[in-house]
Design a protein that fits this description.
- The chain is an alpha/beta fold.
- The protein has one domain: 3-Layer(aba) Sandwich (Dihydrofolate Reductase, subunit A), CATH 3.40.430.
- Helix content is about 25%, strand content about 35%.
- An 8-stranded mixed sheet has the order 5-4-3-6-1-7-10-9.
- α3 links the parallel β3 and β4.
- The protein is globular, with a radius of gyration of 15 Å.
- The protein starts with a strand and ends with a strand.
- The structure holds NADP nicotinamide-adenine-dinucleotide phosphate.
- NADP nicotinamide-adenine-dinucleotide phosphate (NAP) binds next to β1, β2, β3, α3 and β6.
């Protein structure tokens, strides 16, 4: 059954990017992508993904010649953005619940990945559509930046592991 998962990396003080939208504090870290909670196993679970416009523009700016994802991607924006050639990127400003229903259908039984940012993950949670939060915590505090998940949510830890410099934790979102 499809699960909707916010899978991301965070600083210890709960930021997913610094005040300049930089991920230098993250990408320089030691981690094993094939190890526990690593990206390689996670991406096998994913059948559709969603991200906000800032995240999309970061991805495009840092890898301008290519698009790393093979599954359909929804990018939330109120602007007219352009997709990489050949990529299945769907720009939307539609209601989150409607987009989520489209994503679940497209995922074909695999999971839906909310890439970020934090408020977009919160918008899914606001509608009761977020099942799981998976965070890899980097050993750094940033003091400010883009927040991990700016909502009040009750979570239940279901798993955890160490991978390189990171501690990774999986939580179910507790509803009701
Ligand atoms: N640490 C990690 O692993 C990780 C993961 C993901 C992202 N990041 C980084 O974290 C930062 C996140 O940036 P962010 O907090 O600004 O969030 P974001 O979700 O990437 O982008 C926010 C933008 O998305 C659009 N948007 C959001 N909700 C919408 C809705 N319901 N309908 C239409 N458009 C909507 C708006 O853009 P418009 O102005 O175009 O309308 C909004 O300004 C980025 O720097 C990203 O690179 C880090």
């Amino acid at each position: 059954m499809t699960r909707t998962v916010y899978y991301t990396a965070t600083s210890l003080d709960g930021f997913i990017a610094d005040e300049h939208d930089s991920l230098d504090w993250l990408l320089s870290r030691e981690t094993d992508h094939d190890g526990p909670f690593g990206y390689r196993a996670f991406e096998q679970r994913v059948g559709a993904l969603a991200m906000g416009a800032t995240t999309y523009e970061w991805v495009r700016a840092h890898d301008p010649g290519s698009w790393a994802y093979t599954v359909p991607a929804w990018v939330f924006t109120h602007r007219e953005l352009t997709a990489p050639p050949g990529a299945d990127v769907r720009f939307t400003r539609a209601a989150v619940a409607d987009v989520h229903a489209e994503m679940v259908a497209a995922a074909g039984g695999r999971d839906v990945w909310v890439v970020g940012g934090g408020d977009l993950a919160g918008q899914f949670a606001d509608r009761g559509l977020l099942d799981e939060v998976v965070v890899s915590i980097a050993p750094v505090t940033l003091g400010g930046g883009a927040p991990l998940l700016p909502r009040r949510l009750e979570l239940a830890r279901t798993d955890h592991a160490v991978n390189g410099e990171f501690v990774a934790v999986r939580y179910d979102v507790v509803r009701g």
